[in-house]
Each structure stands twice: as C-alpha cells, then as structure tokens.
Automatic annotation (TrEMBL):
Organism (species): Populus davidiana
Gene3D superfamilies with a match to the protein in the record: 1.20.5.4130, P-loop containing nucleotide triphosphate hydrolases, Ribonuclease Inhibitor, Winged helix-like DNA-binding domain superfamily/Winged helix DNA-binding domain
Domain of life of the native organism: Eukaryota
Protein name, UniProt field: Uncharacterized protein
Domain Disease resistance protein winged helix: 422-495
Keyword vocabulary terms for this entry: ATP-binding, Coiled coil, Nucleotide-binding, Plant defense, Repeat
Domain (NB-ARC): residue spans on this chain: 171-340
BP GO terms, sorted: defense response; response to other organism
Molecular function terms from GO: ADP binding; ATP binding
PANTHER family recorded: DISEASE RESISTANCE PROTEIN RGA3, PLANT BROAD-SPECTRUM MILDEW RESISTANCE PROTEIN RPW8
C-alpha cells in the first residue's frame, strides 16, 4: 500500500482550518469551537503519521490497521472541509460585495440554521472518530515529530530533462539485428526476427536503436512501431500499425494498412509480446492481414517468451539477449551513480564485484540501484548490498529488488508512483496530464510549492521519479519540454503491488474492488454496481470502453467524492445536469465525444481545475456561466494541434474571469450581431489571462480578412509572458475560418 499522502492531506486540512475561509464558516454556522478542536486533533495526529508509516513498512500489522483508520478519517475530514470551502466560493460568486449580504441572499434564516446544524453534527462525529484514533495511538510506541514535514527532495541531481540517455554495450546485438534488416536475400517476402530475453535486459531499447538507425531509415520506405504490451491481439496490432482510433472492422483496417504502405518495403516492430491463448492461430491470422507483396519487408518481435520467439521468427535460432558483461555493467552503474566529473576509481573492488554479480547484467536493475546508492553515504554501500540486494537478480525477484528504490522514496512520491498503476501496461503517458492528476488528488501539495507554480513542483516530482528509472522512453517537444513517457512492465507490476487495494485497474468486471478502493480504471465497460465503492476519488474509463448514457445518474448518485472523472472517447452525446452533485471534482476529461453543448450546471463545480474537451468536434458552445469556475487552470477545448476545425462558435462572455487559467488551447473570435451577441465574449476577455502558457491559437469566425484587427489591442497579447515564443511578437496563431 502506498504511503505518504496522509501527511500532505493532514497538512492541507490544518491550513484550511486556520484560513480566513474556515473562520468565516465558523462564524456563519456557529462552528468555531468545533473546528478549533478538530484542528488541534488533526495537528496531533499529523505529528505521528511519518513514524507510523515507517513502522508499517516493517510489517507491523497493528500499526497498519491504525493507519487505515487514520486514512479513512483524514479523507472524511478533507471531504468535509471541501464542502465548506465550496459553499464559501459559491457565496462569493453571488452579486454584491459584503459576505454577510451574500449569505442572506443565498439562504433564508431557517436554511442557515439547518445547514449549520447539519455541518455541526458532521464535524462533531468526525472529531470524535479522530479522538478515538488518537487514544488508540497510545497503545503503540509512535514518535511525535512535531513540525517535521515531508518536503521536496533537496538532493538535486542533474536535471533529467537535459540529461542524455546513456546506452552501454549492445553493439554486437545491434549489429546482428541490423544485418538481418538490411539483408535482402531471405526467401520470405516478409521475414521475422525475434529478440527474446528476461525483463529489464533492454529488448525495447535495442529495437529502438535499430529502428532509428539512419541506414535502416533509408532502407525501408515505411517504418511502423506497435507497443503490444500483451498477448497477440490481431485487431489491436493492426489498429496500432494504421494509427487508427476508430472501431473499424478488420477488413477495413487491412485496407487502410495497405494504403499506408503502398507496396513499399516496410519494417514493423512488435514490441513486448506476451504469452496468451491460441497464439499460433493469432499469429497466422496476423500474417494473413499484413501486406506481403513488398520483397525485403521485415518484422522485429521483442518478447520474454521463448515460445513466442520460436514460432514467430523465420530466423533460426531467435536472437537471445543476454545480460551486460562485467565491464559494461560497471560502466552503466558508474554513469548513473556518480555525477558527471566525479571520480569513481576509488570504489573498493569488493563493492564493484558485489554490485556487478548481484545485478546480473540487467540494465533496469543496475540503473535503479545506482541511483538509490548515489543518495547514500559511501560507508553504507557494502552493508546495503549484502543485507538488501538478492544474491542474483532473476525474473521472480526483480520486483523485490526494484522495491528497494521505492522504499527509499519520500512519502509524497510513493503515492505519485503508485497512482500510475491505473494506466495499462505499455501506455504512452502524457506527462502534463499525469501531473494534473497528481495535483487533483492532492499528491502534489501547495504546501510544497511556496510561491512557485504548483505544476512546476509536479514536474520536479516527475523528474525525481524519472531520475530513479521509474519511468523511461521519454519524448520531448521541439522546445525540449517532456511530453510523454512509459513505464517498464516490471515498474508497472511494482506500482500495482504497492498500490494494493487503493488503486485498481479492472480488466474483468467486478474484480478486487472493495469499499476501501479509492482509484479505479476500467478497460472494458463501467461496472456501476459498485455500491460498496462510494468513496472513489478516481474513476477512469479507458479509451475504447463502452458507455451507456444512463450511467450518468449512477455516477452522480453513487460517486460524489470523485476528484477525477475521465470519460474520453466513449461516444457520449450529452452531459447530465446531475454532474453538479460531484462537487469535489477537480479533473474532468470528456475529450473526443459527441456533445453539442455542455450543461450549465457544470459551472457549479467550483473546485474544478482541469476541463478537457479536446476533439469534441460537434461542440458548439461552452457553458454561459463558465466564469464561475474560478479555480480552473487548464481548459483544453476543440481540436487544438489539428487542422480539422471544430464547431465551436464563440467564447462565452465572462471567460476572462478565469484568471488562474494556464492552458487555453484556442480562442474563437466571433463577430457579434447575432441573437447570441450578449453571450459572446470578445478578445478583451483575454486581457487579464496573463498566466496562460504554451501556445494560444486564435480562430476568427464571421470576419473578412483582417477586419477584426482592431479588437486585438484589447486582448493585451504582448503581456502574456509565459506563452512559448514562436518567433512572433506573441505566441499565438491566427486562423480565419
């Protein structure tokens, strides 16, 4: 079970209780004394959390049970204070300036009393629960650490975004595979080589090096890469090769693949193929669907399974990837354990020998252990190696070995890592959205950020995990910013292990969900019969899952504690007004759906930080009261980055009130004069949005030529200092539609 988020949540609770907002609530509803006592209790419990979590790691089951009770109570406290804060925000959005007048507009006197009484009972019940937990703590020897806090890592390694990826060895392996690819003398029109070896040896890295070799690029007219990360799913593989997200039938996909290849000689890499049922039949079916009329075409298969390697490869024997040599292993360890320029020659020969022998030449393990040991005092190296590392790294103990790196993480990073178990294996993770998910769940806390942008703190968390090899296969944009990454299968297995019942990826309906589950993703269809899981904070329907419009009622009724709701690319045609009931929601992704409009009730979600509507090409308008979403930081709308125009007609008046907005993928400049003129926001709405980052695209509708240029002064685009420069006076693109 991932530890660490409790401390940060407790700290945020204390911060909220002591804020002006909490004091206003106390005055309005007669809760001042109750909230003060709650604050005192949470403060005392917070001081015990860190030591209790450290003891729980030593398999102290009594303290594990105590921490579980703390976890449930702390989550309840956060929900309660979120209710208070949301109510205060709604009041502040009412017309007028005086808070007391706003409250009277919103409530009658009787409603004020009833609301205060109801909240008073909730606070009292929660405080009594926490008091009982505090009394129970006296049974254990838990250290009280006062004001000690989980701070950001102070050890700053070389910034990972600029650190080059180091590859050691494999020249002979690369040459073998490359020679096969460049050889046109094989009897088959499409020849196959399989690269087989245990996990972590670098099969994918080897395939990438060959795939990106300049001579290989020139040799093949078309190169295709499919991350299988599973058994042979013929339809999934053909879809991946075509690059299609549609639900086309196999014959239609086959035709698209033929059109893409156009009889050219092609290279297809099938990365990370697993054992499965009827693999032989599936492989034969796949070969039937692949074009076979381009002589010299090649396929590379990477797999851990010798059985898969044997029946897929036309080359005998398949290429077996071995561990790195002794010298190569030490070179890789040294490159990761010592900062550039630091002398490593004085390391005791006995330590070198122990490291190399125990890691068995497995690069994934070598890199993770090297990073871990670089943070330890040199005197601790030998005892750590002898007492913690297995004698030999093998498939069945790699996760245990990698967990040594996980155990050494600061507490808040443990939860960030475990949360990634919700993604499928082999999934290409969008790093920007991953950080937004962490923030929405409270894993990255404003307590850590000081005056810095919290997204920057989130990026530092990601880079710390990347530096330790928890992520790999990083891709960057043209500005050098990290865009995406993947997790190695073993790292994904580790994330699933440490997440336990808290985070579940459901591959078969109903498996392993409990009332204590907090985060869940489905890869087939939503199982909304999970009445026992009403405390869910994350609900994700992965791309391609099945959607029933009637599911809205169940979601909004059963899962009101959600912070994250992802329902992208499910064919959704409308958003229920009931969504306002999920009042804790901070992250909502409805991308690539078929809605023409969003219910205005969505503007009741005053805690919302992220609203994703990418690819909603039928969407004509945004909610008219969108200005009420005053915590919104990221609004991804339309078809940004593509040249297929969406139907969005205008930007609503009041969008300029969203002064925390960092992402606004595009802004529609619409000509006034229609029946909706009073609802249309002009370019002057941009004048106060000075936190915008990235690239802003302006789409002009209803104007001829440059007739709208006069409006540009009101946008104050020159003041948007965080927009990425593209060589223009401001980083925006203007398109006339």
């Amino acid at each position: 079970m991932a530890e660490g988020v409790l401390f940060n949540i407790a700290e945020e609770i204390i911060k909220t209780l002591g804020s002006l907002t909490a004091q206003e609530v106390a005055l309005w509803w007669g809760l001042k004394d109750q909230l003060r006592k709650l604050n005192d209790t949470v403060t005392r419990i917070k001081a015990m959390i860190q030591d209790a979590e450290e003891q729980a790691q030593q398999h102290n089951h009594q303290i594990e049970d105590w921490l579980m009770k703390v976890r449930e109570a702390v989550y309840d406290a956060e929900d309660l204070l979120d209710d208070f804060s949301a109510q205060v925000l709604r009041n502040q959005l009412m017309p007028g300036n005086r808070v007391w007048r706003e409250v009277h507009v919103f409530f009658s006197k009787s409603n004020q009393f009833a609301y205060g009484l109801r909240m008073g009972h909730r606070v009292k019940a929660l405080r009594e629960t926490l008091d009982g937990i505090e009394i129970d703590s006296k049974k254990f020897n838990i250290d009280v650490r006062g004001e000690e806090r989980a701070s950001l890592i102070t050890v700053r390694e070389q910034t990972t975004s600029s650190e080059p990826e180091i590859t050691v060895g494999r020249e002979s392996d690369k040459e073998t595979v490359k020679t096969f690819l460049m050889n046109s003398n094989y009897k088959h029109n499409v020849s196959v080589i399989s690269v087989v070896g245990m996990g972590g040896l670098g099969k994918t890295t080897l395939a990438q090096h060959v795939f990106n070799d300049e001579q290989v690029k020139a040799h093949f007219g078309v190169r295709l890469w499919v991350s299988v990360s599973g058994s042979l799913d013929v339809r999934k593989i053909i879809k991946g090769a075509v690059g299609s997200d549609s639900d086309d039938q196999l014959e239609s996909l086959k035709k698209k693949l033929e059109e893409k290849i156009e009889r050219k000689k092609y290279l297809l890499v099938l990365d990370d193929v697993w054992d499965g049922e009827d693999d032989g039949e599936k492989w034969d079916r796949l070969k039937e669907l692949l074009p076979r009329d381009a002589v010299g075409s090649k396929i590379v298969v990477t797999t851990r399974s010798h059985l898969i390697a044997k029946f897929t490869s036309t080359v005998e024997p398949p290429h077996v990837l071995e561990g790195l040599s002794v010298d190569e292993s030490w070179d890789l360890f040294r490159s990761k354990a010592f900062p550039q320029g630091q002398e490593s020659g004085h390391v005791d020969e006995r330590i070198r020998k122990e490291i190399v022998e125990r890691c068995c030449g497995v690069p994934l393990v070598i890199k993770a252990i090297a990073r871990l040991m670089s943070l330890k005092d040199r005197a601790q190296w030998l005892p750590f190696i002898q007492q913690e590392l297995p004698n030999r790294v093998q498939d069945d103990n790699i996760i245990h070995t990698l967990k040594l790196s996980y155990d050494a993480l600061p507490s808040y990073l443990k939860h960030c890592f475990a949360y990634c178990s919700l993604f499928p294996k082999g999934h290409k993770i969008d790093v920007k959205y991953l950080i937004q998910l962490w923030i929405a769940q409270g894993f990255v806390s404003s307590s850590n950020s000081g005056r810095r942008c919290i997204e920057i703190v989130g990026l530092e968390c990601f880079e710390s995990l990347l530096w330790r090899s928890f992520f790999h296969e990083v891709q960057k944009d043209r500005f050098g910013n990290i865009e995406s990454c993947k997790m190695h299968d073993f790292m994904h297995d580790l994330a699933t292990h440490v997440a336990g019942f808290q985070s579940i990826k459901v591959e078969r309906l109903g498996n392993r969900i409990s009332e204590l589950t907090r985060h869940v993703s489905f890869d087939t269809e939503l199982d909304l019969s999970l009445s026992s899981a009403q405390r869910l904070r994350t609900l994700v329907l992965l791309q391609g899952g099945k959607w029933d419009e009637g599911a809205w009622e169940s979601i909004c009724r059963e899962f009101r504690r959600l912070r994250v709701l992802v329902l992208s690319d499910v064919g959704m045609k409308e958003v229920s007004p009931l969504i306002k009931k999920i009042k804790h929601l901070k992250y909502l992704d409805l991308s690539n759906n078929e809605m023409e409009a969003l219910s205005n009730s969505i503007t009741s979600l005053v805690n919302l930080q992220v609203l994703k509507l990418n690819g909603c090409r039928k969407l004509k308008e945004l909610p008219r009261d969108i200005g009420k979403l005053i915590n919104l930081r990221h609004l991804d709308v339309g078809c940004s980055g593509c040249y297929i125009d969406g139907d969005l007609e205008y930007m609503p008046r009041g969008i300029g009130k969203l002064t925390s907005l960092q992402t606004l993928s595009y802004f529609v400049v619409a000509k006034k004069g229609s029946s909706k003129s009073e609802m249309i926001g002009g370019l002057d709405e941009l004048s106060r949005l000075n936190e915008l980052r990235g690239r802003l695209e302006l789409r002009v509708k209803g104007y001829e030529g440059g007739s709208c240029v006069s409006e540009f002064d009101g946008a104050k685009l020159i003041d948007k200092k965080y927009l990425q420069s593209s060589g223009d006076a401001f980083s925006s693109e203007i398109r006339y539609l």
